[in-house]
């Protein structure tokens, strides 16, 4: 009698198909989670974890480069006066404007702090021009609903090898320079 073999064969085909289906789903989920682990969910920018990965990579390769450390001024007052949804709009717009003015990767490293990673060797004059371009991007108000918010940013920058021997040390240097402006 061949019927039990046919049933067993069909059962194995169905089980194999279900197993393949779940493997494909798990792989898709793994890729989605990996993408989320490198990005800030609110702004879509890379996150601090990705920034650390990238500067370690640059250090290991001995690459020259630099960072712009950018802080959104008066952000706490926006949240306190208008609520977190307006604050979220501001953060998304800051991220958008940073991406508009540079092709270098931008990162939201926490709260209202951002970094642009320069993964090329540029001249100090190039950094000054880029700093002015970033500041100019915030001359226009940010719109949230019916609010016009005059949001400015502070920034500092630092370069390897001019300012520090490695990428890790740049963060502190750029942060200090931001507060000197």
Structure commentary:
It is a single chain. The chain has 181 residues and is α+β, with helices and mostly antiparallel strands. It has helices spanning 3-38, 48-61, 75-82, 84-101, 124-136, 170-180, and strands at 46-47, 65-72, 106-110, 113-118, 142-144, 147-149, 153-160. The protein has a five-stranded mixed sheet, sandwiched between helices. A hairpin with a 2-residue loop joins β5 and β6 (147-149).
- Report the major sheet: 5 strands, mixed
Average pLDDT: 90
Give the fraction of residues assigned to helices.
55-70%
Radius of gyration: 24 Å
Outline type: elongated
Number of strands: 7
Strand content: 15-25%
Number of helices: 6
Query: Could you state the order of secondary-structure elements as H and E?
Result: HEHEHHEEHEEEH
Query: Uncertain runs with pLDDT below 50, 5 residues or more?
Result: none
Read across the widest sheet, the strand sequence of neighbours is: 1-3-4-2-7
Distance between the termini: 89 Å
Which class best fits the helix and strand makeup? Answer: alpha+beta
Topology at a glance:
Blueprint: H1 3-38, E1 46-47, H2 48-61, E2 65-72, H3 75-82, H4 84-101, E3 106-110, E4 113-118, H5 124-136, E5 142-144, E6 147-149, E7 153-160, H6 170-180
Parallel strand pairs: 1-3
Antiparallel strand pairs: 2-4, 2-7, 3-4, 5-6
Helix pairs in contact: 3-4
């Amino acid at each position: 009698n061949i019927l039990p073999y046919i049933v067993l064969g069909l059962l194995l085909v169905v089980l194999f198909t279900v197993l393949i289906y779940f493997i494909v789903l798990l792989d898709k989920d793994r890729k989605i989670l990996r993408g989320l682990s490198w990005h800030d969910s609110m702004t879509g920018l890379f996150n601090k974890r990705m920034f650390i990965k990238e500067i370690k990579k640059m250090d290991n390769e001995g690459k020259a480069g630099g960072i712009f450390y950018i802080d959104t001024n008066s952000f706490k007052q926006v949240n306190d006066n208008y609520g977190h949804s307006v604050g979220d709009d501001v953060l998304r717009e800051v991220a958008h404007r940073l991406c508009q003015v540079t092709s270098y990767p931008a990162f939201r490293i926490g709260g209202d702090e951002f970094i642009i990673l320069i993964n090329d060797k540029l001249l100090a004059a190039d950094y000054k021009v880029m700093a002015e371009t970033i500041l100019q991007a915030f001359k226009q108000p940010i719109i949230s609903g019916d609010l016009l918010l005059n949001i400015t940013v502070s920034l500092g920058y630092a370069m390897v090898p001019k300012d520090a021997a490695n990428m890790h040390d740049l963060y502190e240097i750029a942060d200090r320079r931001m507060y000197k402006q």
